[in-house]
Amino acid sequence: MLGLATVLTEQGMEGIVPFVPPASVRPKAVQPERVDSVDEASEISMGTWILVGVIAAVMLASALGYWISVKMAAPPRSKPVMTRPIQDMTSVSPDAAGAADAQVDIASAPVAVASPVQPPASRAESLPITRNPARAAVRKSSESVFVSNPEWSSQVRRIGDVDPVTERSTMVILDAIHDVQERERQVRPAASKEVTRE
Amino acid sequence: MNDAPAELRWSVVEPWDGVRVHGYFFVQHMFATHDAVRKTLPIFSGRLPEPVHVGESEFRLGRLIGLPAGIYLHGNGFICLTQTDESEDHTSANWRGLLRPQDIWAALANAVAVSAAMRKPAAAMLRAGGALYFFAPTEEAMQKLMQALTPTEEGEPPLSSADVAQLCLATP
C-alpha cells in the first residue's frame, strides 16, 4: 500500500494516508490516426498533381517539337503561276516554218479548250536527245561552243572547271534547251500574227 | 501483558499548514557512545529500525527525484529520513523559528517517492541539529504534494525535493 504514515510507534507505523502515483504524460508525438490519414491523403493528392503536370509538360513539348519540325521541313510556298497547256514540240522542225503555223493555233488557244496535248511523261519519252551535227562540228573546231551566246558565258565559265565528259553531257542538255527556246521564238511571232488576224 | 503498540515520546506535537508536526529534542552528545542508528533516530528506545539505504539513493515519482539521507525498515513500512542543513540545535523553545517550511515539504516529498518506489507505506522524518521530526500529513497536504510533482507536459525537467517544496509553498 502506497501512503504516508500519520502515526509512528516503536513497532511500526499506522494511519496511512494513501496517494495515487501521477500518470505519465502522453507524448505529443502520439496523435489520432485520422490526422495521419489526412496527411497521407494530401500527400497522394500532391503526387497526383505533380504527375499530371509532368505529363502535360511532356505533351506540350512534343507538340512544340512537332510543329517546329513541320515548319522547318515544309518548302517555301511558291508564287501562283499561270500556266498554259504544254505544247508538244517533238514534231516541230526548225526548217518547216509553214507547218508550224497550224500548230501555233492550237498552242495559243485558251486553257479551257481541249487540245490533243500528250501527258508530260509521254512527252519526255518521245523527246529524243539528239545532237545537232552542224553544231557538233563547230564545237570540235572551237574551244568553247557557247562563246557566241553571251547569255551562257557565265555558265560556261562555271562549268569550265569540270572534266570534259561532264562538260559535254551538260552541253548536250543545254543544247536541247537552246533548241526548244529557238523553236518557241519562231512560234511566238506566228501565233501573235494569228491572233491579230482574228 | 499490554500488546498495544508503544507510543513514541515526542517533545512537541503541533499542526502546521495541513501537517501534524512531531518533534523530539535532545542533547546530541548524550548519544555519542551509541550506534549510528540510535544517534540518528534517538526517539526509538526499544527495537531499532533496520537501515536499508543510506545516502545517495535516488527515488523517482513523477517529476520528483527524491534523494533521502537514509531509509530504514520499520515494521510494515519504511522510515524516510531527510537531513537539514547545519544550524544551531533545535529546542522546544526555538524550533518554530528554526524549522523551515521547505524542509517539511521536502521530507514529505522524499517519503512519497520512497513509498512509490518500495511499494510500502513510508514515514516522513527530518533530522536537524538536536531534533528529530516526524510529519503526519493530512489529505489536503497530500493532494498539494501530488499536484506539485505531477508532470503536465512531456519532457519537463526533473525536480528535486527542494523544488517540489517550493511549488508546495507557492500553492495556496
Largest sheet of chain B: 7 strands, mixed
Tally of structural domains of chain B: 1
| Secondary structure: helix percent of chain B | 25-40%
What does the largest sheet of chain A look like? 2 strands, antiparallel
Could you tell me the strand content of chain A as a percent range?
A: under 5%
Radius of gyration of chain B: 16 Å
Number of strands of chain A: 4
Low-confidence stretches of chain A: 96-125
Compressed to H and E, one letter per element, the order of chain B equals EEHEEEEEHHEEHEH
Describe the protein.
The complex is a heterodimer of chains A (198) and B (172). Chain A is mostly helical. Chain A has a domain at 97-115 and 125-197. Helices cover 55% and strands 4% of the residues of chain A. Chain A has helices at 33-73, 97-107, 120-126, 133-141, 153-159, 164-197, and strands at 3-4, 7-8, 13-14, 17-18. A two-stranded antiparallel sheet of chain A has the order 1-4. In chain A, a hairpin with a 4-residue loop joins strand 2 (7-8) and strand 3 (13-14). The longest helix of chain A has 41 residues, at 33-73. The radius of gyration of chain A is 50 Å and the shape is rod-shaped. Chain A starts with a strand and ends with a helix. The model of chain A is unreliable at 96-125 (pLDDT under 50). Chain B has 172 residues and is an alpha+beta fold. Chain B has one domain. Helices cover 28% and strands 30% of the residues of chain B. Chain B is built from five helices and ten strands; from the N terminus they run E-E-H-E-E-E-E-E-H-H-E-E-H-E-H. Chain B has a seven-stranded mixed β-sheet with strand order 1-2-9-8-7-6-3. In chain B, strands 4-5-10 form a three-stranded mixed β-sheet. The longest helix of chain B is centred in the middle third of the chain and has 18 residues, at 101-118. Chain A binds chain B through residues 1-17, 19-28, and chain B through 5-8, 20, 22, 44-47, 61-62, 74-77, 79, 108, 111-112, 115-116, 119-124, 134, 136-139, 142, 145-146, 149-154, 156.
